[in-house]
Input
Amino acid sequence: MIVDCHTHLWNGPKDFSDELRNELASVGYCDEIISVSPERHAAATSSVDCSIVFGLRAPLSGFFSVNDTVAEYVQTNPKRLIGFAALDPTESSVLEELDRVVDQLGLRGIKLTPIYSGYHPFDERVLPIYERAEELRLPILFHQGATFPRKAPLKFAMPHQLEDIALRHPDLKMIVAHLGHPWEAETIVLIRKQPNVFADISGLFGRPWQFYNSLRLAVEYGVVHKLLFGTDFPFFTFEDTVDGLRNIVDWSQKMEVPSLPIQLPDDIINQNTLQLLGLSE
Ligand SMILES: [Zn+2]
Output
């Protein structure tokens, strides 16, 4: 079973500030990125058996997703779609929103973005979210790594900052998006020692040298079984991501560098993601 643990859906331009739209353009993302309709998401994810889908909520950086957008879409194909709620604990209504997305919208996990929202992952405003997520068995996918908007503080972006959460909430399932780029090594040592912390490989193939080194380090530390397949659609597609994985392994086999195992792409693409995250029914 192929699971894409990292895809986005938004509701067009109104989910983004003008400033963020300019910043997206300045790093090379065209307007197609922000106009991902349910139809486009469904077509682009037809090659996978299940997609986890969410928006982004971080007013500081200009993301204004509303969780109803994802919930309505998930209802169109609940067997193949799992919705996560985008939450921002700097908003005073966040705990009511958490209740609403679980009780009324049927969302099954949470997307948190400390760097985009501007809070430390152990900020007291976010701690009740971890408590409830552990209790309700909602996995949390963190953007815990670098990003481009100017106002998003790098000081809240380090993967090791999730360790205190893992120690306090040992049953909470957490995923570090994009292997915590560019601190992939930090993520790898974190997922090695914290049983319920995982990482996804989405969005990394475009920097092949770093991607090669990260995958090689994951092999050396023995954590490939904790790497989840993800695309970061609409930024990248399933086909791009699979090709990127296979190409880097082929390259390593041909060059005089420590090679990546031939079976590595299939191991990651077919990872038992729903079971690892406690989402298989
Ligand atoms: Zn993403």
